[in-house]
Amino acid sequence: MLQETNKGPIRPFMGDNPSVQLTIGAPKLREGSETGVTLPAESESEPRDEVKPSLPPNGGSMAWLQVSAAFALYWNTLGLLNGFGAFQTYYEEVLLSHESASAISWIGSVQIFFLMAGGVFFGPLYDLGYARSMLAAGTILVAFGFMMTSISTEYYQIFLAQGLCVGIGTGCLYIPAITLVPAYFTTRRALAMGISTVGSSLGATLYPLMFERLQPQIGFGWTVRAIAFIVLAMCSYAVVVARPRLKPTKTSAPQGLSWNSLKAVAKIAELSDRRYIIQCVAIFFSNVAFFEPLYYLQSYAQSHGMEGQDLANYLLVILNAIAIPGRIIPSYIADRIGVLNTYIGICAFTAVTVFYWISVNNRAGNIAFSVLYGFFSGSVVTLAPVVLASITDDLSILGTRLGFVAVLKGIGSLIGPPIAGAILGATNSYLGVQLFTGLAISLTAVFAGYLRVVIARHNGQGKRERSESESEPNNESNKE
Prior knowledge:
Layout: E1 2-3, E2 11-12, H1 61-75, H2 78-82, H3 84-95, H4 101-117, H5 119-127, H6 131-150, H7 155-179, H8 189-241, H9 262-268, H10 274-303, H11 315-337, H12 339-357, H13 363-390, H14 398-427, H15 431-479
Antiparallel strand pairs: 1-2
Helix pairs in contact: 1-7, 1-8, 3-4, 3-8, 4-7, 4-14, 5-7, 5-14, 6-7, 6-8, 7-14, 8-11, 8-13, 10-13, 10-14, 10-15, 11-12, 11-13, 12-13, 12-15, 14-15
């Protein structure tokens, strides 16, 4: 017969002699259980399901909806800003003909700078759970900026509306664009990112064509308003379907740290990680080099084998169109052979392509360069954040990491074209521009290769430490 007690363990009664009573270890009472009723308590060593982070689904309707949202955001951030050349030409020839080309180009440069460098503010905000607010604010700012541009007639008005307002708005949209997808995929992460970044190539291809076709027919104002309505519709779709998978890191900060200071943010996001720093340097040099061919492709072709040919004006469209398969095919390969290995090879091929540009002096050569550079440079842009995600152990801090590297991207994008322009003005030759661009992208390949060496050494050291820790118990047992 068993006796129950609410003050101690359950003891089977074996008679009056206490020496024959057996004590059975009773389980702990759960909080809230009835008195006298013992329930098995959860082991403290066993992880609870509610606090255990779930694995990425690596597919499914929700994951691919995030790819579609990122596609729309890329279309209206990088795609929109990379098509600024159409506005540059119109401003130089018509609306702002009294301003210098250098002054007009600052409108586009400021847009790119805020798109990239704004990540230092928007990255931590994303990780703190403000993704939906950022998307809504960015949509409103970009649409409002283009509406104000449509009624602007002075340089300062266009600079404020298109340069500052649109630039800050795209900065709000860009961090969610590059952060939404990685958290939903594992083995297909590079392919998913490649598909989403196709939006930037399509935007950069179709927005200039739209401007060139509509502006003579309906005027500058309504053409820009039409662009604003497209931005509003596509970004509103992204606001509706975007669902960041990981919870905000507000509660996961190390003990004694918060998100209230830059030093604390840097520690929480592990910005001093050696792998992260090396990849940041590689991305910086790729952005220093990226825009020079886009800026000087047409002018170089018009003076090297394509004088007076209308096709020269469509080389940039060809480049952006070829970037579409350039973003998908290498991403598919990266999921098979490794994203960092693919990134190193793509950077090397991009550098070779830029050096090939030096020898181009006819129509076929200019078209070939547009195709090759469009294909490989698109992959450089696509794979860089995927590499960063692959070396980030905790994806809940990925937004902050991408935000801080975006500052370097903004600086590189801001200083690269002016340096190339200064070289061109001083030498009156494109050779210096081509060598400068080729050297910068070559340094990207070098630092990416160095990152591979660092990761290999780190993995090798980890294996040695594990083998040593496993051999110690065996040695102790042998001594005994």
